[in-house]
Amino acid sequence: MDYNKFNIEEKYDSYKNIKNEEAEKIIFKLSQNEIMELDYDSIILKSKMYLKLDKFKEAIECLKKSLSFKQSEEAYDLLSFAYYEISEYKEALNYVNLSFKISEDEFLYNHKAKILEKLKDYEGAFNSYYEGLKFLIHNNKSYGDLEIFGENLERVGNLLKEKLQKRIIRFITEKNCEELCNCYIRLLEIIIKEEENDQYHSFNTANNINYLHLIEIGRQVLLDCGYFLELLNIYKTLYKVECNLEYEDLTYVNKDYIDKKIKDLIVETEDRTSLQHKEVVYLQVLEEAISIGNKDFNEYLYEKGSILFKTLKYNEGLEVLRKVLNDSNAKTSIKIKAYQCIIIGLENIGIKGLETYEAYKDEFSNFLKTKVDEVLKDENLTLDEKCNVVLEQCDRALNMNLDNSYWPLKTEEVCLFFGEEYEETPTNQSNFKIIESYNKAIKIYDKLIQFNEYCAHGYYRKGRAIVLVLRILNSSDTTTKDSRMVHDLHCYSYSEVIFNLNKAISLNNTNLKYFNLLSRTHFEIGEYEKALAYIDKALTMDEGELYIYLNKVFILIRSHKYTEAIDALLRLSFKNTSIGRVKKTFLPKKDILNFLMGIFNIYPRQEKIYYLMSYYFYYLSDFNYKKSLIFINNAIELGDDERFFLLKAKIYLKNREYEEAIKACEDAIIIDDHYDEAYALKEQCINMIAD
């Protein structure tokens, strides 16, 4: 590559092939002719011959004389070249600058850069090569020409970066922040210009400067000296660096890195200025950060509005925060902080009764309602994520005293919803995971109780969740390993269950579920008399509840009161029993079957026993069509009860024998023509056939 291609003498090469003897003859002839001595072209020709003979002083004299006739680019160029050759670089620079005022070309840029290098002004030389490269690109010059300038740009850039690096380290040690900031900006501008044109020069990693590290080691000095705006300006310049980097270099510096550094600077500035009550400085830094328009734009707007409120500039603060609220791209968390800042700010200045204050409370409440509904409907969120966000917003609304006709009820609703969701954990998980979910449910119920100490259902659900934990721990399936894993979880005790259920009953003694669970709790710990007392209270509310009545029978069985258990079973009214609110029995399926088989052996010809046996195989256990049908037919043979026929119809329906089910319904209706349930079941079967 011809790096001398753009030397200034190459621009005027008409005398290049003239021999020295010929040059001397030309000078002699021109000197003898007085007329030619007064001719501009003759003087220029004479000066060129002197340059050919390396007689630079004589050339300079002639060239200066030519200027009296005409101030030309050619004269200035040759003067600059002559002074350069005799090492008078300042004069050379002066004349090349005069030439630039007339015109510009790649030769001038190259020549000027060489002069500046000689003067050790590497920054000026770098900029001259940079401007020359831009000139070539603009004029569509060849890649070879561009590469010459590109290589020179890199070479001088490396010298300049090394020089600036040394100065930066020195200024950090001296804590000369003014010069330090200046050097940082100059260094980054050099890197920007290099990266803009990196395709025109080779990349030499040996001369690569770790500029991010240089900034980091000087950062603390700048912060300690209060140079917040200057440091922010350095980070802003990094964005320009990032814009020109190749893809592989973005792992070194990228927008996320710069955004984080600016965010850290904002936090640091707030901490330092707040201690010194220099809010004006902090606002200036925020203004600069806002002007960047990065991803944290709205967060900085909020900070500005917050500071304005703190400094009692409410109208200005309200105007700024309104921008945050109106921006559809602003994060929910930022908008929430903006609403809180406005409402608390207006409250603090004693204008709670004004329309503005109430309007913002209503607007904030509606905003939170919308966000809660969005989260509840979002299928991409986990249960934990939904629960955390929704309960956080409910807490916020309650603490801000928003819409008291809505948020207390909504909080209770979502607490019960999430608690039940955690209670319905899939049973195929480990005991640790199941108990962990139950613990989450209990914490939610605690939150509900703390918010509303009169919420009976909150105490009931908490007691129920604790029972679920205790049943796992007391199960024969729980291994030693499981016990070790759940050691760190809160596992509670039966006394806590009883306390919570009694509390629920004291607040609401009309819910039979509360009594049923309290009865079961005493049943599980062997306190059968108390269990019987509470199950009787439940039956006084609705003696038609089948499972509750069965639970009473099971308590009597566990109490070894077998005669009373059988008598209670035989007194069971089958016509009015309902299956709705309570759907579980105290005993497992296996124990229920053993008990029923025992009664069956004692009382083999009792229709109610047959009915219960049939019902067990129809509903309480896995459906067994043959056994349930055999037992219900035996019941019908012994007793003409419409309820027996209805159960028979249900058995047929479950087995998809719709015609037989209709016949059984009609038999039930014959016995009781007001039997609404039989009519409804018959119509259902007819519709199934039609479909």
Helix amount: over 70%
Please give the number of β-strands. 0
CATH topology name of the domain at 591-691: Serine Threonine Protein Phosphatase 5, Tetratricopeptide repeat
Shape: elongated
- Uncertain ranges: none
Radius of gyration: 47 Å
Distance between the termini: 90 Å
- Structural class comes to mainly alpha
Percent in strands:
under 5%
The CATH class assignment of the domain at 591-691 is Mainly Alpha
CATH architecture heading of the domain at 591-691: Alpha Horseshoe
Overall mean pLDDT: 86
**Largest sheet composition:** none
Under CATH, the homologous superfamily of the domain at 591-691 reads Tetratricopeptide repeat domain
Number of helices: 34
Can you describe what's shown?
The chain is mostly helical and 691 residues long. Among the domains are: 271-352, Serine Threonine Protein Phosphatase 5, Tetratricopeptide repeat (Alpha Horseshoe); 527-587, no CATH class; 591-691, Tetratricopeptide repeat domain (Serine Threonine Protein Phosphatase 5, Tetratricopeptide repeat, Alpha Horseshoe). Helix content is 74%, strand content 0%. The protein contains 34 helices and no strands. Helix 12 (228-244) runs antiparallel to helix 13 (255-276), helix 19 runs antiparallel to helix 20 (407-423) and helix 25 packs antiparallel against helix 26 (528-541). The model has no long low-confidence stretch (mean pLDDT 86). InterPro entries: TPR-like_helical_dom_sf, TPR_rpt.
